[in-house]
Specification:
Layout: H1 8-33, E1 40-44, H2 47-57, H3 65-72, E2 73-78, E3 85-87, H4 90-98, E4 102-103, E5 108-115, E6 120-124, E7 129-132, E8 142-146, H5 149-166
Antiparallel strand pairs: 1-2, 2-3, 3-5, 4-5, 5-6, 6-7, 7-8
Helix pairs in contact: 1-5, 2-3, 2-4
């Protein structure tokens, strides 16, 4: 395992940090925006998520990190951070994988989540994370946003922290 690979300990630390930031966001949300917040959470993996994560780990299309992620974290729903950020449960990732990965030129990628603006995030077989330029899933044009899932989670955390401070989520 490389130092950049995900581990349950790193994911627990990340979850603790972002959960604190989400609590600050939710605590001030209605006062700042005039309406109650939606769902903003990092849901812990249940037994079904962990079973799907083990199945995902045996797949050859993406790196091991998404499986490690979903063994600890069921899904991420941040409905009120900018347009929103969402990391799908392992069962959804598996379903998309069963229907075929998306050809991204030299790499095959599988959708792992989205932002609330209609753009999907994809994990590549090399571990990199990409974002679609448009909402179309048929042959999307992709931009690499992170070298690996850990870097992507760090970018998500920065977007959340920035949003809590000044209401701007950045460009992720």
């Amino acid at each position: 395992m490389s130092e950049r690979s995900l581990s349950p300990a790193w994911l627990a630390s990340w979850t603790e940090r972002v959960s604190g930031a989400l609590a600050a966001l939710v605590g001030e949300f209605e006062r700042r925006h005039g309406f109650p917040p939606g769902t903003n959470e990092v849901r812990a993996a249940c037994r079904d998520d962990q079973t799907a994560a083990r199945t995902l780990a045996h797949a050859d299309l993406i790196s091991a990190d998404p499986a490690t992620l979903h063994d600890s974290i069921g899904d991420v729903t941040w409905a009120d951070v900018g347009n929103g950020y969402f990391l799908d449960p392992a069962s959804d990732v598996l379903l998309r994988q069963e229907h075929g990965a998306v050809d991204a030129g030299a790499d095959l990628v599988v959708a792992i989540g989205s932002n609330g603006g209609g753009l999907s995030y994809f994990a590549g077989s090399d571990g990199s994370v990409h974002r679609a330029r448009t909402a179309l899933l048929d042959g999307p044009k992709l931009d690499k946003v992170a070298d690996d899932l850990r870097q992507f989670l760090e970018l998500l955390e920065r977007s959340l922290t920035q949003f809590v401070v000044d209401g701007e989520p950045g460009s992720l």
